[in-house]
Amino acid sequence: MSKLSASRVHESVQSLIDMHEHPAVLIDRAYRIVAANRAYRTTYGVKSEQLIGRHCYEISHHRDSPCHLHGEDCPHQQVFARGEIQRVVHTHFDGKGRPEYVGIKGHPVVLPDGEIYLGESIQRLAPPEAMNCEEMRMVGRSRPLLHAIDQLSQAAASPAPVLLAGESGVGKELAARYLHDHSPRRGGPFVAIDCTTLPESLFESEMFGHEAGAFTGCVGRKAGLFEDARNGTLFLDEIGEIPLAMQAKLLRVLESGTFRRVGGREALHADIRLVAATNRDLRNAVATGRFREDLYYRIACITIALPSLRERRADIPLLVEALLARINAANGRHARLSEAAWTRLMRHDFPGNVRELRNVLQRAVALCHGQIIEPGDLGLEEADADTGAPVAPNWGGLEREQLEALAERYHGKRRAMADALGISERTLYRRLRRHGFAAPRTGT
Ligand SMILES: Nc1ncnc2c1ncn2[C@@H]1O[C@H](COP(=O)(O)OP(=O)(O)OP(=O)(O)O)[C@@H](O)[C@H]1O
User: Which Pfam families does the entry mention (predicted)?
Assistant: First the structure.
């Protein structure tokens, strides 16, 4: 766009987008910002004169290439290719460089100069204070994770029970905390219990509390988890493991909204938001009579599936970075992965998901000599060990995620990506084309 039309555009739309209380920005076909409102400038800590003409991905993503090259859905593509409105969730970086999840609505805007632009209105999904605690942050930018974050953000506003489904170690407890931290109950407590640790004999007293002398050996009155979580969120992990008789008791409380301490008479109000999690197929447990159907429908009002790490391999580099930083900080170390160790990690299947990745890194930091983690320090089984073959050459669907992960790690640089895979740039180019990626940048 010429300088003249840029200034015309700027004048005609500036006052319009300034009316938006959320950050709003107008972007041209070449990803350049042509106008942005005050909320956008404040959020991303950039002055007006430094903003116009800059690439949107530089400002919000701190990157030097468009976000769709890094595995994210990009409204830019949808708007300019199809003229359609698109809503996506992205990770943006605020003016202080802190990551945060945002919901973006992108729509086509036709201005008096006849040009089409992308108009984006951006809504912060997380209050910045909720994202500040690094331990609690759900790290990742892959499509499957951002889709789950979108669902979690929408569910957070409602009081309805949520069932989180996913393999062990995918981050169900972290997701439950996210729900709590983004809900109107965030000022109240978050109480988590792993139901497999509750023996049947103690289930009732642990859940609902007991009065003094309610049963043999019990001294004094004790509040249960329902009371501990008052005004907050009660997270029942592995809910599928609750014995049938106890399921009936839990259902009664959820239906009536009241409970009694064991040995008590007073009916207490169950003022909690229930979030449950399971790593097995609860519908199947219902079909085989191991889980009550009525309880299932009560707890699974909103069901959110959390992706396994295999389904979001593109997040591995970011997770490695975040987890290593935490482990290093906790141990006063500065360990980092050698290229060979990194390639070795990328070949692993991670049946134990993020927890397994964290444990592998913890072990590696403890075992490595000096600062560099070598493949041998990772302690991964021989079964999927380095064979010298290109990364996952026959994994079909996984190949796409690996390419995304490499694009992320090497900022889309073709030479470096090809080297990491042990293939030529031409082969890499063919693979990228096959998976519908735009050609990445050349150079190392
Ligand atoms: N997206 C993520 N970003 C950063 N850390 C994560 C992420 N997902 C999981 N983790 C980390 O992985 C570990 C396992 O997560 P969590 O306990 O939430 O998993 P889970 O699905 O509840 O596991 P289980 O089913 O065994 O209870 C934790 O240390 C958590 O902090």
Answer: AAA_lid_14 (PF25601), HTH_8 (PF02954), PAS_4 (PF08448), Sigma54_activat (PF00158)
Q: Are residues 84 and 120 in the same domain?
A: yes
ipTM of the complex: 0.95
pLDDT in tens, 96-132: 777 777 888 888 888 777 788 899 888 877 554 444 4
| DSSP labels, 183-233 | STTTTS-EEEEEGGGS-HHHHHHHHH-B-TTSSTT--S-B--HHHHTTTEE
Q: 1 CB under 6 A from ligand 1?
A: no
**Domain endpoint, select from 286, 305, 324:** 305
**Ligand 1 contacts CB of residue 358 (under 6 A):** yes
224 lines ligand 1 (CB under 6 A): no
The answer to whether residues 150 and 182 belong to one domain is: yes
* Domain co-membership, 168 together with 291: yes
Q: Which tokens hold the place of 95?
A: 């003016």
Is 315 touching ligand 1 by the criterion CB < 6 Å? no
Q: CATH code at 201?
A: 3.40.50.300
Ligand 1 probe mutation, 355, 357, 361, most atoms within 8 A of CB: 355
CA distance 17 to 34: 12
- Give the separation between CA 31 and CA 65, rounded to whole angstroms: 10
Cα 419 to Cα 424: distance, rounded to the nearest angstrom: 7
* Count of structural domains within the chain: 3
Q: How many CB atoms lie within 10 A of CB 378?
A: 20
Of the three residues 305, 328, 360, the one that is the final residue of a domain is 305
- The residue that leads in pLDDT, 430 or 316, is 316
Q: Best substitution site from 354, 356, 357, 359 to test ligand 1's pocket, by max atoms within 8 Å of Cβ? A: 354
The Å distance, Cα 276 to ligand 1 centre, comes to: 15
Atom of ligand 1 nearest to the CA of 174: 18
The reported pTM is 0.70
Domain region containing 29: 3-124
Residues 78 and 170 in one domain: no
Same domain as 240, residue 289: yes
Are residues 169 and 293 located together in one domain of the fold?
Answer: yes
Ligand 1 centre to CA of 78 (Å) is 33
383 has pLDDT over 50? no
Q: Pick the residue whose CA is nearest to atom 9 on ligand 1.
A: 171
pLDDT level of residue 249 (50, 70, 90 thresholds): very high
